[in-house]
Every structure is written in structure tokens, then in C-alpha cells.
Amino acid sequence: MADYEGLIEGIKANNFIIVGRVGMDFFTHPSEATEEAEEMMVGMGGSSANIGAGICKLGGKAALVTRVSDDSVGRYCLGQLARYGVDTTHVTPIGGEYRTSLAVYESRLDDHQTVIYRNGAADFQMDDSDVAAVDYAQYGALITAGTVFAAEPSRTATFKAFVLAKDAGLPIIFDVDYRPYSWPSPQVAEEVLTRASEQSDMIVGNDEEFGFMAGGIDKGFAKARALSYTSAAMVVYKMGHKGAITFANGEEIRTGIYPVDAMKPTGAGDSFMAGLVTSIAAGHDLKTSILRGSACASVTVSRPGCAPAMADTETLENFLAEHSGPTAA
Fold first, then answer.
1. Which residues of 214-329 form beta strands (DSSP E)?
2. Using one digit for the tens of pLDDT, what is the confidence trace for 65-115?
3. What residue ranges do the domains of the chain occupy?
4. pTM of the predicted model, to two decimals?
5. Is 1.20.1290.10 the CATH number for 10-322?
């Protein structure tokens, strides 16, 4: 069983090493379909990079471990990470035919479309040497998201990072973030994501992701609760508009959401994670921290882009002061 107090202590350092991808996003103007777009906006994306940007915007520190293509797109990502304050010491350019991931998505909910370009992805080329170069003792906790496990050598490298981080006393925070398009098969994804979950001190996922690991969405809640009893110190089971159930320190904490007029669905999970951990780091109790994470998600889905849409501290505090809510658990 993981150590809850150790997890909280690691998060309170508010200095995170994050393993996973950074990418370039293209997104339409509000309500516009991709097929009809004549102009698009551009921003940084990639789940791990988004989490890092969100943490920095909310006053924390974050460093990213990944690879990017040695071209203009990779350099764009390096520049954006620096702009948000994410440490790029361990972001390594790679040549050849490997390319930084691209995402094209729409700023609308109805008939929303997202297209991800991940063939020959540069970030999947992260290997043991990348994670071995990190001085984990400088950080309070390690965060990663499920996409990093979808291919080799990134998968093996991330599991090595888990070992190195634990040896340095860091808790592991895992966002399941299951994206079927990245994986060779559902069977491989189920096995690997379950293995990663069982090695993590804190797990965040939605009902579909826990259901996927459990073999059926009706079994997801039981899977999340079981992980909190057997291995993880904290498990956050998200249910979309129904809120979340968090299992931690022998409690089941039920929380609602902050309803908004959403512009698009993308970026909510990344901003939730950033808001949750930085709120814990700031000394808020766990229930308040979960609700602040939910508020960050609401801010992000109400604005264009992912990293550009994420709340900074002033935006979050203004949102909480002005917005009615949250909904009942």
C-alpha cells in the first residue's frame, strides 16, 4: 500500500518531473468545422506538456522529459515550453524521419472532430538514457500520462523512470489518458496501463479508462476502489458532468463540477491534474483541491486551445469568485 502522507509531502514540494510528449496543436475558430476552415490558430499541446504548462501557470515548477523532432516544429515546442516556464533540460531533439506529434481539432462540441498525427512519433524514441540523465532528487514527484507507454522504447524508459524516481523517494502520479489510436492493440494497452497503475501512488482516470482496464465500464468503479486498497494512496475516478469520486486515506470524497458553456472537450484532464496538484501544494485540503482542479478544467474547455486555454492563478481565483457552483456531488 502506498504512503498517503508521503504522496502529499511530495506534491507539496510543488516541483514536478513530467515524463511524456509535447506536440503542436492546430485548432479552428469557435464553432468552425475543420473542412470549412480557412485559418487556424496554433498552440502547444501534448498531455504531459499541457500538465507542465498548467502547473507553471498556477505557480508550480515543472520539467519535461521527452524527445522532439530536430526541425522547426520541434523548435516551436521547445520555445513554447520555455514560454510557459517548463524546464526543457531533458527535452532532446532527434533527427531522421521521426516527427513531433501534431493535433488538429475543433473549437466546438457538436460533431467535434480531432485528428492526431502520431506516425513515427519523436517522443516514442525516448529511451533509457533520457530518463537516466535526470537527477530525481531535485523534484518532489513524478507525473506521467498513459500515452507514453503506447510504444517502445518510450514504454520501457518510463518504467525505468518509475524505478529511478522511487529510489529517490518520489511518489508516482499517473494519468491513465488512454488513447486507442496510439496502441498496437487493446490487449497490450490493458496489460501495460494496468501494470503502470499498480506501480503508481496516485492514479487519475475517467470511468471509461478504469472500465477499460477492468474489462467493462460497469467494472471500472470497483477497479478504481480496489487500486486504492491494494497499491495506490489516492485514486481519482472522474465521471464527466457527474463529477468525481476520490479514494484517499480511507475516505471516499464525492465532488461535483463547475458548469460552463463549453467550447470544446479537449484539455480538461490535463488542466484538472495541474489544478489538483498545485492546490494540494498550496495547502488546500483534498476536497477543495479536487474542486479547484475541476474549476481549472471548466476554464480550459470554455476557451480555444489546450495549453493557451489553461488557467493561471489569477484566472482561477476570479473564476471561483464569480462562478456559482460546484454542482452537488
1. 234-238, 244-248, 251-255
2. 999 999 999 999 999 999 999 999 999 999 999 999 999 999 999 999 999
3. 10-322
4. 0.97
5. no
